[in-house]
Amino acid sequence: MHVTTTPAPKSTIIVEVEVPAERLTTALGEAARALSRRTKVPGFRPGKAPRGVLEAVLGHGAVLEEAVDRLVQSSYRDALIEKEILPLANGDVEVVQAEEGKPLIFKATVPVRPEVQLGDYKGFNFRPDIETIDAAKVDKVIEELRDQNAALDPVEERGAKKGDYAVIKYDGTRDGVAFEGGSTDRMPLIIGDDRLIPGFEDELVGMNVGATKGFDITFPADYGEETLAGSVAHFEVELRELREKILPAEDDDFARSMGDFTDLANLRGEVQKRLERNALDKARHTFSERIIEYAVANATIDLPDVLVEQEVEVMHDEFRGAMTRQGITEEAYAKVSGKSQEDLHNDFRPDAEKRVKVLLTLTKVAEAEDVTISDADVDAEIARGQERYAGDQKLARYFESDRGRNYIRSTLRRSRVVEQLVDDWLAAHPDHPAIPHVEDGPGDSVNDEQARSNAAVGATDPGSIMAADDHAGHDHAGHDHDHRGHDHAGYDHEPTPSGERTPAG
Q1: Residue 454 pLDDT greater than 90, yes or no
Q2: Mean pLDDT of 335-358
Q3: DSSP category for residue 446
Q4: Bridge partners of 190?
Q5: Average pLDDT of the segment spanning 286-304
Q6: Which of 26, 116, 362, 478 is the Cys-Cys partner for 414 at CB 3.0 to 4.6 Å?
Q7: How far apart are CA 204 and CA 158, in angstroms?
Q8: What pLDDT, in 10s, does the model give residues 398-408?
Q9: What does 421-454 look like in DSSP terms, one character per residue?
Q10: Class of 151-246 per CATH?
């Protein structure tokens, strides 16, 4: 058997195989016997019908097709082993020549682990940007706390003004005829928030509780209900309730009501500290994101379609989960948005490509920086996940599987290498204020929703394929020792080809 390989775009290899004619002849005999055993032919016992009779029953070329299928399967597997190729998924096969008495020739386009060529990932010229916390920002938080703890007191001695909380009754007519949605007995609103038609709430200003008022309003030309857009309607309105927001005094009593604070100065001091901690957290996170963007922008990766498609499926499951949490079914969303599953996948694809590039680049950076994750770290994260989701058996099984462990290991490894890059920069710039870790250790580095979606679609982390030889029991040729192929992008399979065969001749 003669095998040649040629690199191809999108991290694929063209494997061309020529199988000697005598092997095809042998395969024809095996195929005829196999077809004879499982085909009922009148007048012949199972396994005894000759080839000519079989083809009269099954159609001309049936034995050759069976023989080619069998030979392509075994030859493809042998070719991958010979050339030490670890496929990410089944290859797409085209049979070039399949004629009796001639060599069998076929070629397969095989997706393989992508090569990631790192560029510069340390020589960036940007710095962490830490927000300055001043008295005005503390004042804003104190004001928000007062607003959250305000009382709504009835208004009796004055007319309505903007900012008041009101309950109104209204009846709307157009040309003297009531219209759908134009009347209600109780409508709560904050005057001035402009929840209603432009100009409507302005008419409420100055009204007293119990008063009524009539006025005309023109609906906007772009109003959602086409039958009302641009038309004039008359409304009769009654102000039924009116309340004003009374903020608590900004004093020591207010501070003590907020928790274990001795006085207002103590509360302001704690707010200042929390804002400063948040500013440091935000600065570190933003700095980390910029480092990641810099590394990815300078890396060269030819993404295999199989990894992008897998990430699209993961993102689709994440989207499905988000819709479910909002009480929206996928069918309802499709009806409202007018988007098919294919449309959604096309929407997800650019972000899926970006996500895969990030995962692969950071995995390569972790390799370059010699960052490793111990089994103890993985076990600890699994224990945390199982504790958080004790009732989710599918996610628990995923965490315990080899695929799930690889996902956790890769995720923790990337998180750790980014933290290391930040710490290395800070060590090289001692003049810069410290921006400490939010958490010590790798805990809580795994994105739970992403893990849940990976489990749902049976995927693993694309970055884990870069370290497959280290943690998945493979020899350095990229094959399991029993010569079964496992792609680390989330597919388990015999290393067999797929796709429409195209016999020639």
Answers
A1: no
A2: 91
A3: S
A4: 165
A5: 94
A6: 362
A7: 13
A8: 888 888 888 88
A9: HHHHHHHH-TTSPP---SSSSSTT-S-HHHHHHH
A10: alpha beta
Candidates 3.90.1150.10, 3.30.360.10, 3.30.70.1050, 1.10.1200.10; CATH matching 2-113: 3.30.70.1050
- Residue 502 in tokens: 């195209």
Residue 107 vs residues 104, 111, 219, 469: alpha-carbon distances, Å: 10, 13, 67, 27
Of the candidates 152, 172, 271, 250, which has an alpha carbon nearest to the alpha carbon of residue 215? 172
Q: What is the mean predicted confidence (pLDDT) over 265-274?
A: 95
Q: Which two tokens stand for residue 328?
A: 């929206």
The single residue listed with the structure tokens 């009101």 is 166
For the chain, which residues make up each domain, given as ranges? 2-113, 151-246, 299-487
3-class SS of residue 100: coil
pLDDT value, residue 150: 94
Question: Could you give the CA distance from residue 377 to residue 25 in angstroms, rounded to a whole number?
Answer: 56
Exposure string of 174-190, with b = 16+ CB inside 10 Å and e = fewer, is eeeeeeeebeeeeeebe
| Token pair 């750790």: residue | 416
**Residues 358-369 pLDDT 10s:** 999 999 999 999
The rounded distance, in Å, linking the Cα atoms of 502 and 505 is 10
Quickly tell me which residue has 């948005």 as its tokens: 337
CA 75-489-311 angle, to 5 degrees, is 135
Cβ–Cβ under 8 Å, residues 248 and 254:
yes
C-alpha to C-alpha distances, 100 to 25, 64, 503, nearest whole angstrom:
7, 8, 12
The tally of CA atoms less than 13 A away on the side-chain side of residue 72 is 29
Euclidean distance between the first and the last CA atom of the chain, given in angstroms as a whole number: 20
**CA 65, 66, 70 angle in degrees (round to 5)?**
115
CA–CA separation, 230 vs 322, rounded Å?
37
